[in-house]
Amino acid sequence: MSGHSKWHNIQGRKNAQDAKRGKIFQKISRDLYQAAKAGDPDPDNNPQLRLVMEKARAANMPKQNIQRAIDKATGAGGANFEEITYEGYGPGGVAVMVFCLTDNKNRTAAAIRSAFTHSGGSLGANGSVSYMFNRMGLIEILRDGLDKDEDEVLMDALDAGADDMKASDDKFQIFTDPSAMPSVRDALQEKGYELDTAEVTMIPENKTKVPDDKVGQYQHLIDELENNDDVADVYEAAYIEE
Residues in domain TACO1/YebC-like N-terminal (predicted)? Predict the structure, then answer.
């Protein structure tokens, strides 16, 4: 029995690692799609796409996955993907936005609605929660291996055209106007910074606490959304108190 238990423990850890890796790949695929859609699909002529491809390789993302994401953006192979954003309320009334890339709107709409309904939430109309978020450029620089202190990074970020910066124990988060993100990114890279993230995203103005008795339902909603192949990103105006 001990061997049987050990097998299940190892298998459980492997399944958890696979799920985490899948979510990382999913986010990178979204970033690849957006970078290729917004600019040249040739990374030699597209710094943003090149940055995301480097991140994909560092995460050991298979080459075919990388190419598939770029093909979605360019329509290669006859695929016609659309960008659709759904807005809704999770358990406890917390705001959630879901960004999707799909070649079948009916399939995606049914799946997203089902995820909210099964978890005690509900889909809302366009604009029902998006006003709670700000569209911003986000650049993240990891502290590990960085030989500059917070004041130096802040000055470099402001000189590059950034609007604000937040520092935590493990990274610096630099915020920009969406249209300024590429120029700030390029300026920081020219200064020798290695960027962990450079993207345009949705930042909540405020976060609402998920009620303690709704945490399980809320986590189920987010997991179901993130495990959907049509879902490229989930934006949350919520936090869970640990």
Answer: 5-75
